[in-house]
Design goal:
Layout (H helix, E strand, L loop, with lengths): L7 H10 L8 H12 L2 H4 L2 H8 L3 H25 L6 H8 L2 H38 L5 H4 L10 H16 L1 H26 L16 H11 L19 H31 L17 H6 L3 H4 L8 H8 L3 H35 L18 H17 L2 H29 L12 H17 L3 H25 L18
Helix pairs in contact: 2-10, 2-12, 2-16, 4-11, 5-11, 5-12, 5-18, 5-19, 6-7, 6-18, 7-9, 7-16, 7-17, 7-18, 7-20, 9-16, 9-17, 10-12, 10-16, 15-16, 16-17, 18-19, 18-20
């Protein structure tokens, strides 16, 4: 097994040789985090979580948020110590070695790229009914749904993925400015939803709280975990952050705290106002979300009014409460704001690829910086093409579950890395220290492992298959071309200003 370790000093020196411009402050980082997190998970997957757990999805949000909270504390320590692009990939290289770093970097493709595709499909789910209700424009199902979702190709999802990719090529500062505007729009939409839904809560709608049992709540937590995916993308911007030792922890923990409060309030409003009981089959068992069986069951006019049958659940709740025009505002906000999530996911993916290519584990052409826009345009265009292809053909729920497998693997590596570094490099300056690390670290490891075990079997199989394919790519390409491939290869020395 290959345990090449890239020393932290070498990582910092490599970043200095071919670096990205530092343009992001604490507010922009927090907005990038909120922009990445609040999106498809709450705007779209609320219905799927309700179908899995009923009102118990409130607990599912808490479980998933708790796992992310302890992981965020681990991320903050590593991001402040190693303020360069690459996120969990870079940290794993410094602590666990090149092979594990490759596996983590490969897993991050499932997190960022697949998540971006899922959000593009979620955006399409709001866009299609929005223009139908507002302008009486009907997009036929074969052009509004992917091949594996009952249609042919999801053209709206394709369009938004291409648009966001173009924006990212134009520049990081410009992307962050647009993102901050979009974040304000979707936060305003959620505030509106909370203000309208919370006053009409009926406590009887919370009973039975877990109609399909506690295990189903755990399964919903594993899926709704996608609602929190993205806060770690803030760490991929470390190399483009002003004063990263101070600002990275602010961006990571601040964005997660803001999003958790919103999620619980929105979930309570959706459940309490119209109910969130799952649709059952003839045997009294819950029907799997995203399946043809649930689609057929939801054709029934009575069931069609249920939260679990909607592809745009928040807008659906307001329509059921009689706020038809305001429901269109929610749809409009999702239409305007979800692209910020796609933006952050593609942003995170390109920075991981950039770091892997800088280590020569991927072709070095991916590190090319555009002479005018100062962005890694080659890797951005390649990533955008992959995201567009997946969004064109797959349904949102399946993409989200696939994304979670890669995310949990990366989170596990980060938590493990923090604890290992406390032993192997205890003297290194830590501008931010994970509090009670010997409690927080193991909790993060256990939480990630449990949520991974609760993922659908198909998602776990895809993850292991993807990892196996990644190992083949590493064996045929990365292993021989790595910057540390030969005994003569020495890490670059650390410059005084980085020391």
């Amino acid at each position: 097994m290959n345990w090449r370790i890239k020393p932290l000093d070498a990582i910092l020196a490599s970043a200095e040789k071919k670096s990205l411009a530092r343009t992001l402050g604490p507010f922009q980082l927090t907005m990038l985090g909120v922009g990445a997190v609040i999106g498809t998970g709450i705007f779209v997957l609320t219905a799927e979580a309700a179908q899995k757990a009923g009102p118990g999805m409130m607990l599912a949000f808490i479980i998933a948020g708790a796992v992310c909270a302890v992981t965020a504390l681990c991320y903050a320590e590593l991001a402040a110590m190693v303020p360069v692009s690459g996120s969990a990939y870079t940290y794993s290289y410094a602590v666990l070695g090149e092979l594990i770093a490759w596996i983590v970097g490969w897993a991050l493709i499932l997190e960022y790229a697949v998540a971006a595709s899922a959000v593009a499909v979620g955006w399409s789910n709001y866009f299609v009914p929005l223009i139908q209700h507002s302008f009486d424009i009907h997009i036929p199902i074969y052009l509004a749904k992917g091949y594996f979702a009952g249609g042919l190709i999801n053209l709206p999802a394709v369009g938004i993925a291409l648009l966001v990719t173009t924006l990212l090529v134009l520049g990081t500062r410009e992307s962050a400015a647009v993102n901050a505007t979009l974040v304000c729009i979707k936060v305003a939409a959620l505030v509106l939803f909370i203000a309208l839904a919370l006053p009409v809560i009926k406590m009887e709608n919370f009973h039975p709280f877990a109609p399909l049992g506690s295990l189903a709540v755990g399964g919903a937590a594993a899926s709704i975990f996608f609602a929190y995916v993205g806060f770690d993308a803030v760490s991929t911007a470390a190399e483009e952050t002003i004063n990263p030792q101070r600002n990275m922890p602010i961006g990571l923990i601040g964005s997660l705290a803001i999003c958790t409060v919103f999620y619980l309030l929105v979930a309570a409003g959706a459940i309490g106002s119209i109910g969130a009981q799952p649709v059952l089959d003839a045997a009294g068992q819950g029907i799997e979300p995203g399946t043809a069986a649930l689609f057929e069951a939801c054709k029934d006019p009575v069931k069609a009014a249920l939260l679990v049958c909607s592809e745009e659940p928040l807008a659906h709740v307001l329509r059921e409460l009689g706020w038809d025009k305001l429901s269109r505002l929610i749809g409009l906000a999702a239409f305007l704001a979800l692209p910020s999530v796609i933006l952050m996911m593609i942003f995170g993916q390109t920075r991981v690829f950039f770091s892997m290519a800088r280590d020569k584990l991927l072709p070095e052409v991916l590190t090319k910086i555009h002479p005018r826009f100062n962005t890694p345009h080659v890797v951005t265009l390649i990533t955008g093409a992959g995201v567009t292809l997946a969004a064109a053909f797959f349904p949102v729920g399946k993409l989200a579950d696939l994304s979670n497998g890669g995310t949990l693997a990366a989170f596990f590596a980060v938590a493990l890395g923090v604890m290992i570094l406390r032993f192997t490099n205890p003297e290194r300056k830590r501008p931010f220290r994970t509090p009670v690390v010997w409690l927080v670290g193991p909790l993060a490891l256990i939480g990630c492992a449990v949520l991974f075990a609760l993922l659908p079997t198909a998602s776990k199989l895809v993850f292991f298959g993807w990892a196996a394919f990644g190992l083949l790519v590493y064996a045929l390409y990365g292993y021989r071309r790595s910057a540390f491939a030969t005994p003569q290869a020495k890490p670059p020395t650390l410059s005084p200003k980085l020391g």
